[in-house]
Amino acid sequence: MYIKVCYDFLAHLKIIKNASEHTIRNYSIDLNDFKDFWENEILSLKDPEEKPFKICYQTSYEKRVSEKDHLLDLKNCSRLTLRKYLAFLKEKNASSRTIARRLSALRSLFKYASVKKHIEASPAEEMETPKIEKKIPCTLSYDEILKLFNQPDTRTLLGFRDRVIMELFYSSGLRVSELVSLNREDFDYKNLLLKLKGKGKKERIVPITKNAADWILAYLNHSERYEEVDGHLKENDPEAIFLNRLGTRLTPRSVDRNFDRYLMMSSLAGKVTPHTIRHTIATHWLENGMDLKTIQALLGHSCLTTTTIYTHVSIDLKKAVYDEAHPRA
Fold first, then answer.
1. Do 249 and 173 lie in a common domain?
2. Above 50 in pLDDT, residue 2?
3. pLDDT digits (tens, 9 = 90+) for 182-193
4. CA 20 to 30 Å from 9, out of 20, 118, 180, 188?
5. What's the distance, CA 239 to chain centroid?
6. What average pLDDT does the chain have?
7. Catalytic site positions
């Protein structure tokens, strides 16, 4: 019953709530983790020779029925079961952030199950969520940005593409998912604007710098984009802006993998990801006088609280606020 309700819940998220594939994938991970705990630690159903059944949001329940599902009766899942699960996660040294996310996923699932009358009440209600320590985002200096941006070999089409991506990240603070979903029709060179599809498929229009726009235009008009040369195929997706080696739309995983490679080449310390550049440009905007409301709109944050984290990042901003507020002698 648990697995069947999970599939219905994930379908609800996709169809009714219009959740992104990234969100649904994360829910799948969380719900699978609890399923494994329930089967192995509570019901002792673990079979060392059996491959664990996994809830996959891309596959229908009917095609992957688990014989054990009738044993995972939601009505038998009590608050005590959930407490044992949270204790199990702590014993496994899971972070507070991971534990909070797992509990949030279960809380949403049980709320859905309650509305659908599968259970009378949710056992996750009023369970205390672990306190999450706010992490200060990692940012780069302007010199480090230049060092990273100089890594792609712009003499090749794929290297040129990666430099364009970096320029665009620093120009407008895009998320990876927003970047790879960009189509030609979303790029307005004349007015220096981009139309983005953000979280929850919400659309917003953001400005880009003339420099970034010139890089995009040069990439779209690059002669090798329409040829099979240097280990890549010609354009096979006329709508997408950013293409992979096969000439089809670039994926988020490919972008992350490329950034890992350029990080090693640049010898920069720490973990630099595309999101690091998003944090960096937001901090630089703030240091140069842009107000939080504008930054919130540019980044597509639904809550201003998310944007205020950048006030904790900027040492220059803290010093400026201190100097402004300190009494003059």
1. yes
2. yes
3. 999 999 999 999
4. 180
5. 23
6. 83
7. 175, 199, 275, 278, 301, 310
CA distance 68 to 181: 39
- State whether 97 and 158 are in the same domain: no
Domain assignment present for 127: no
Mode of pairing for the β-strands spanning 203-207 and 187-188: unpaired
Q: Contact at 8 Å (CB) between 140 and 272?
A: yes
Cβ proximity of 319 and 311 under 8 Å: no
Give the dihedral of Cα atoms 57, 58, 64, 69; nearest 10 deg: 10
**Mean of the pLDDT values across residues 272-291?**
82
| Token code pair at residue 172 | 């407008």
Q: Are residues 159 and 33 in the same domain?
A: no
Q: Are residues 110 and 158 in the same domain?
A: no
Q: Say if residue 169 is in the same domain as residue 276.
A: yes
Which of 187, 185, 190 has its CA nearest to residue 174?
Answer: 187
Nearest to 282 by CA among 313, 260, 325: 313
Same-domain check for residues 86 and 164: no
pLDDT in tens, 127-165: 887 776 666 667 788 888 889 899 999 999 999 999 999
Report yes or no on 81 lying in a domain.
yes
Helix (H) or strand (E) holding 195: strand 193-197
Pairing of strands 193-197, 187-188: antiparallel
Task: Classify residue 84: in a domain, yes or no.
Answer: yes
Can you give the residue range of the structural domain that contains 9? 2-115
Percentage of residues in the chain having pLDDT higher than 90: 33
Could you say which of 45, 80, 115 is where a domain stops? 115
Q: Is 48 buried (19+), middle (13-18) or exposed (0-12) by CB count in 10 A?
A: exposed
- Residue 137 lies inside a defined structural domain of this protein: no
Cα 69–72–77 angle (5° rounding)?
160
Please check whether residues 156 and 48 belong to one and the same domain: no
Do 163 and 298 lie in one domain? The reply is yes
